[in-house]
């Protein structure tokens, strides 16, 4: 790691990410030693509560353990506890800080319903409430800089608890295989010009569209999406196969001239896909090749579902960290999320709460000002819909086939068009030039309407 990297990464997210193998081993040992677990006898269902980087551990548990579990395992990411929770339900409340308000609220409701509780946190309100619920505490390592960097701890801990209660089997072997695979992949990703760094450069300033197959792939896709959102702070979108082949894939039929400039499709593959899911991935790539900037595939490695999930998660984490570095973004802090939490922790302003009760003014409102008449504007190199297209229409991208006319990606093409075929601009030696005149703001983005 370079000095520049350490300077840009104020919270040490790179270091925490590359410590994933040790994090899983340590978390497994802590969960195995916890005392005071509720009895596993008579449990008919399991609910795992959690949000964000803490809640994904429940998703991993479902992807890895649910197929062979003796009882149903569900994840709830809401303020409410499911209505059917009762004395025969095991509830695992996971919050890295222990203060996640949705998790605290749902766990409180579950405890009041008589559920058998286990708390997983580094401290906070959940730790304070646990004794009153008769719940043991599985303590997360508070030195991990952010909850999303604790993917190993929040995923391994519930699996160990479920096995200790006799609800699933084979967890020890799966954790050992995952630790081995993460160590191998970490070595591959630590060098200069590693696959994750190259993938980050391929994505560049496009927006990632992540597809995963089956339950395991779906959880991996959600993990990648969240990491793109929180590390480099960029928009990202995800969906699951086969579901998206019943709806979303039809949505690529019209706006390809725009989407191919701004979206990169990432396909997360693993060895536990249904054979028909694998075929659907091939058909999706064929159908979408002309409507995205690139279609890139990441293949999981490792022995077993947990190993392959952790392998995909590690590649995604390091990719998003490198993208943050490329964009000059500190991957650690997420001030907008902190602001939302802080504002929710305080009561809303009085005016907001009583605005509906304020009587209307007896005086008529002032008339709206007369809008200025539309005026013509000179030709501009970045106007209207072309601004999205011009952003990547350089001579270099022309040679890569990224500029298009209609539905074709011809190398060397020097014009692009709307779906109606109207040319919007050309690319010359000096860069993109828009050939369209703006008039009114209402017609700035498209004139096909």
Q: Which structural class do you get from the secondary structure elements? A: alpha/beta
| Amino- and carboxy-terminal Cα gap | 52 Å
Biggest sheet details = 5 strands, parallel
Summed up, the domain count is 3
- Rg from Cα: 26 Å
Give the total of beta strands.
Answer: 12
CATH architecture of the largest domain: 3-Layer(aba) Sandwich
> Low-confidence stretches at least 5 residues in length (pLDDT < 50)?
376-449
CATH topology of the largest domain: Rossmann fold
Mean pLDDT reading: 84
Q: Reading side by side through the largest sheet, how are the strands ordered? A: 2-1-3-4-5
**CATH homologous superfamily annotation of the largest domain:** Glucose-6-phosphate isomerase like protein, domain 1
- The gross shape turns out to be globular
Strand content: 5-15%
Report the order of strands and helices.
HHHEHEEHEHEHHHEHEHEHEHHHHHEEE
Highest-level CATH class of the largest domain: Alpha Beta
Question: What is this entry, summarized?
Answer:
This protein is of the alpha/beta class and 449 residues long.
């Amino acid at each position: 790691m370079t000095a520049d990297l350490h300077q840009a990464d104020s919270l040490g997210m790179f270091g925490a990410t590359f410590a994933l193998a040790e994090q899983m081993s340590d978390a497994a040992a802590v969960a195995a030693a916890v005392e005071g677990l509720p009895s596993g006898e008579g449990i008919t269902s399991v609910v795992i509560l959690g949000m964000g980087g803490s809640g994904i551990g429940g998703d991993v548990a479902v992807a890895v353990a649910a197929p062979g579990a003796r009882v149903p395992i569900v994840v709830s990411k809401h303020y409410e506890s499911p209505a059917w929770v009762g004395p025969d339900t095991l509830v695992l409340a996971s919050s890295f800080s222990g203060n996640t308000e949705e998790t605290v609220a749902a766990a409180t409701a579950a405890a009041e319903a008589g559920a058998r509780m286990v708390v997983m946190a580094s401290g906070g309100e959940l730790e304070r409430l646990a004794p009153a619920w008769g719940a043991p505490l599985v303590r997360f390592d508070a030195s991990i800089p952010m909850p999303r960097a604790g993917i190993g701890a929040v995923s391994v801990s519930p699996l160990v608890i479920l096995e200790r209660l006799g609800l699933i089997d084979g967890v020890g072997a799966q954790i050992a295989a995952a630790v081995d695979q993460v160590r191998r992949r970490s070595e591959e990703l630590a060098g200069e010009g590693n696959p994750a760094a190259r993938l980050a450069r391929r994505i560049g300033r496009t927006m990632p569209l992540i597809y995963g197959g089956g339950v395991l792939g779906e959880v991996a896709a959600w993990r990648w999406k969240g990491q793109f959102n929180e590390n480099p702070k960029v928009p990202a979108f995800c969906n699951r196969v086969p579901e998206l082949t019943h709806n979303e894939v039809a949505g690529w039929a019209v706006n390809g001239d725009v989407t191919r400039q701004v979206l990169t499709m990432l396909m997360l593959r693993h060895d536990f896909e249904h054979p028909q899911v694998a075929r659907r991935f091939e058909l999706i790539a064929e159908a979408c090749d002309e409507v995205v900037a690139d279609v890139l595939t990441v293949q999981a490695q490792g022995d077993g579902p947990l190993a392959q999930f952790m392998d995909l998660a590690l590649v995604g984490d390091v990719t998003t960290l490198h993208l943050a570095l490329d964009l000059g973004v500190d991957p650690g802090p997420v001030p907008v999320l902190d602001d939302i939490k802080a504002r929710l922790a305080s009561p809303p302003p009085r005016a907001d709460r009583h605005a509906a009760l304020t009587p209307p003014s007896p005086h008529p409102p002032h008339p709206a000002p007369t809008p200025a008449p539309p005026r013509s504007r000179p030709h501009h190199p970045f106007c209207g819909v072309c601004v999205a297209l011009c952003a990547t229409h350089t001579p270099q991208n022309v040679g890569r086939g990224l500029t298009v006319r209609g539905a074709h990606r011809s190398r060397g093409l020097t014009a692009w068009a709307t779906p109606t075929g109207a040319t919007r601009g050309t690319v010359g030696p000096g860069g993109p030039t828009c050939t369209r005149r703006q008039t009114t703001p209402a017609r700035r983005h498209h004139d096909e309407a």
